[in-house]
């Protein structure tokens, strides 16, 4: 698929600080001081997704509700977050007790959830009863590029006598439930590749934030509009500088456009325009996926 | 004991751990990592989904019908948090304007009478479901899905929804 517009230029890079400080666990037979990324079991410098806030709220909004659910986080920066609506299949099926993900809005103080912010599984045939929100320590307003390559994917047999784990408060270090651990080298997460904002947009671009994957590792994007209260924020009932998701739509605003390698988000300017845009770029975790071919 | 009473924080060289910005923190054990269990095959899957038999059609103008295209057991006893990434390799033959890439929920396009097919992902306490919803056109026309090829990546995180 080609992008609708191909003349934008990538944002400038803001390289993350590289450091040899931290925890490193290398694979058996490799020196942690010299091993390459592919021979590491764990490295505290890998840009994983740290959860700074986990909260479950009762859903109080429906398709006719104009107000938002507001969840304070008080982080002082607008964080990247994910949310899951819990209830019967929201699209119209009958499977009960399911979770469906969506991306909420955020500013420097609160998370905002509004059923009008598409795509949202909060309501439909059946209103979701609860919402889980995970807030990550990723600042949507600050550019960063992780140029440190963690290494190729690997798939070695797991050795439970080798690695690192940090149990959560009140949990058993010998637990077999991975939820009980803040860090466990048996687990990985998608990694942060970059956060791009309008601050590093090329001057030739017109209100556009763009990123192109220069590696062979699969990546995906989350686009956001930094909304004005009398711009995009008007119908979403959010204040100035709220970051509102721009899904992969081709016919609406806000929208993220991508061909799988390059993605861009364009924001409207002017009297009823918005302030900027951001792209969060994530990459695959560092182990091979299970490949399955199925037919319906 | 508060979670801040023990643990490890690693900040970038030259940056105090007490004043560091998020991008300057390399590790903070008070903030759990979003986790995929590398020992759970269902945790990270790439599905090549080929539609060779058409899902059941709804009956009537603007009627809808939901079908499970594929499901797999995720291995947990609770509803896990799920992320689905979809790349549409080939669209239903009569639809236009579909999304080539989408996350969690997306449309494969529409016909001239507003008939659509949507694809989305769900998780319950046993399975991950890849679903499709067919919506007939305003004139009652049905839409064929045979010939649709989807490349779907699912990340099943260990964190529970509820």
Explain this structure:
- The complex is a heterodimer of chains A (296) and B (162).
- With 296 residues, chain A is mainly beta.
- Chain A is 1% helix and 36% strand.
- In chain A, the strands form 6 sheets. In chain A, strands 10-14-20-16-17 form a 5-stranded antiparallel beta sheet, with no helix packed on it.
- Chain B has no helices and 11 strands.
- Chain B starts with 8 loop residues before the first strand and ends with a strand.
- The model of chain B has no long low-confidence stretch (mean pLDDT 91).
- The interface between A and B is large, with 83 and 82 residues.
- Strand 13 (187-188) of chain A pairs antiparallel with strand 3 (36-37) of chain B, so a sheet runs across the interface.
Topology:
The complex is a heterodimer of chains A (296) and B (162).
Chain A: E1 24-26, E2 40-43, E3 51-58, E4 69-72, E5 79-87, E6 98-102, E7 105-106, E8 110-113, E9 130-139, E10 144-145, E11 165-167, E12 181-184, E13 187-188, E14 191-197, E15 208-212, E16 219-227, H1 233-236, E17 242-246, E18 256-258, E19 262-266, E20 276-283, E21 290-295
Antiparallel strand pairs in A: 1-2, 3-9, 4-8, 5-6, 5-9, 7-8, 10-14, 11-12, 14-20, 15-19, 16-17, 16-20, 18-19
Chain B: E1 9-11, E2 25-28, E3 36-37, E4 44-50, E5 64-73, E6 80-90, E7 101-103, E8 105-110, E9 116-123, E10 127-135, E11 149-160
């Amino acid at each position: 698929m080609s992008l609708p517009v191909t003349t934008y230029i990538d944002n400038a890079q803001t390289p993350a600080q590289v450091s040899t400080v931290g925890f490193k666990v290398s694979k058996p037979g490799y020196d942690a001081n010299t091993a390459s990324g592919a021979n590491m079991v764990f490295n505290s410098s890998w840009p994983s997704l740290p959860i700074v806030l986990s909260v479950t709220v009762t859903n109080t909004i429906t398709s006719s509700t104009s107000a938002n659910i507001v969840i304070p986080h008080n982080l002082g920066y607008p964080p990247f977050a994910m949310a899951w609506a819990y209830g019967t299949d929201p699209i119209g099926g009958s499977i009960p007790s399911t979770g469906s993900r969506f991306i909420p809005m955020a500013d420097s103080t609160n998370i905002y959830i509004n059923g009008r912010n598409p795509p949202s599984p909060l309501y439909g045939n059946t209103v979701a009863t609860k919402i889980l929100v995970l807030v990550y320590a990723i600042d949507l307003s600050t550019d960063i590029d992780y140029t440190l390559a963690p290494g190729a994917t690997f798939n070695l047999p797991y050795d439970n006598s080798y690695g690192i784990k940090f149990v959560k408060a009140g949990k058993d270090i010998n637990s077999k439930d991975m939820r009980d651990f803040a860090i466990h080298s048996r687990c990985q997460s998608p990694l942060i590749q970059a956060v791009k904002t309008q601050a590093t947009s090329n001057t030739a671009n017109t209100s556009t934030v763009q990123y192109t994957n220069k590696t062979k590792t699969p990546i995906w994007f989350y686009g956001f509009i930094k909304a004005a209260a009398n711009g995009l924020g008007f119908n979403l009932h959010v204040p100035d500088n709220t970051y509102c998701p721009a899904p992969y739509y081709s016919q609406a605003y806000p929208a993220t456009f991508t061909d799988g390698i390059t993605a861009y988000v364009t924001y409207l300017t002017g009297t009823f325009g918005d302030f900027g845009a951001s792209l969060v770029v994530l990459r695959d975790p560092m182990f091979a996926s299970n490949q399955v071919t199925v037919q319906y | 004991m508060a979670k801040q009473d023990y643990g490890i924080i690693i900040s970038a060289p030259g940056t105090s751990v007490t004043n560091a910005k998020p991008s300057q923190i390399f590790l903070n054990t008070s903030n759990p990592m979003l986790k995929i269990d590398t020992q759970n095959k269902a945790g990270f899957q790439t599905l090549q989904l080929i539609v060779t038999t058409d899902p059941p059609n709804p009956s009537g103008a603007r009627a809808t019908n939901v079908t499970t295209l594929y499901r797999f057991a995720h291995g947990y006893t609770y509803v896990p948090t799920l992320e689905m990434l979809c790349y549409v390799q080939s669209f239903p033959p009569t639809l236009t304007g579909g999304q080539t890439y989408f996350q969690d929920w997306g449309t494969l396009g529409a016909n001239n009478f507003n008939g659509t097919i949507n694809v989305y992902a769900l998780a319950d306490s046993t399975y991950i479901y890849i679903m499709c919803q067919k919506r007939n056109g305003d004139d009652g026309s049905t839409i064929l899905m045979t010939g649709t090829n989807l490349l779907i990546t699912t990340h099943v995180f260990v964190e529970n929804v509820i």
